[in-house]
């Protein structure tokens, strides 16, 4: 059985001072689906794109990476302009819509469902997320969330934080960045931020901290892993690569998530960090293929 990813697919317009704009397929959930397909997972994506050139470009890109896409293309494809700074980090400006056709996946079941980013917050598609989340809970699928917070899109802090906590209380795995966590829980330490999400009900929380590595935690075990040292091209897709790695590796865990010891968490985090390092070493959301990991 396969993994379902639910969320936006869009065109990243990458702007760097002194260079022409670069166009590339993107969207955090679409990147996670692409990463899973490249790692060898059987993966499907429920998304929303236009019937324009950009939509066709996105669909071809995903299918080349072994992603089965569920979509009814119409209208214009969403875009995200990524403004790159000198250190490779990106800020985004969005032109969005999110209204997937849930009837395209009626009757299906999956071993895992991943969702997040703008799609988890933006109506009318957020209601589709809720419905599929309930279907996943009913079928005991592994459920994962990456909020990938975009403050200019998801609304006021209070309602958006409440929405995040509602979703986090219903899933098994939450992955978020330190930037996400600081926006959700300003003033709390990294450890306290993770503790709060664990108390909501998530069985595993992974908090990424860029070049400072990552913190992975269950209710009974916690580890910090180091980031791999690479020359950074840009950070686009790094978190999505980390997320795809987690979902991929959790398809065949050695033990239940809540029973993982520190060694198991460390292996999980180191694998994700290694794959994320491949992504940041090259331009755009160019996530690694399984063949790049060696024998």
Automatic annotation (TrEMBL):
Presence of the UniProt keyword Kinase in the record: yes
InterPro entries according to UniProt: Carboh/pur_kinase_PfkB_CS, PfkB_Carbo_kinase, PfkB_dom, Ribokinase-like
Gene Ontology terms for molecular function: ATP binding; kinase activity
Pfam families: PfkB
Gene3D superfamilies: 3.40.1190.20
Keywords: ATP-binding, Kinase, Nucleotide-binding, Transferase
Annotated Carbohydrate kinase PfkB domain residues: 3-288
Record family assignment: Belongs to the carbohydrate kinase PfkB family.
Family matches, as PANTHER family: HEXOKINASE FAMILY MEMBER, PSEUDOURIDINE KINASE-RELATED
Protein name in UniProt: Fructokinase
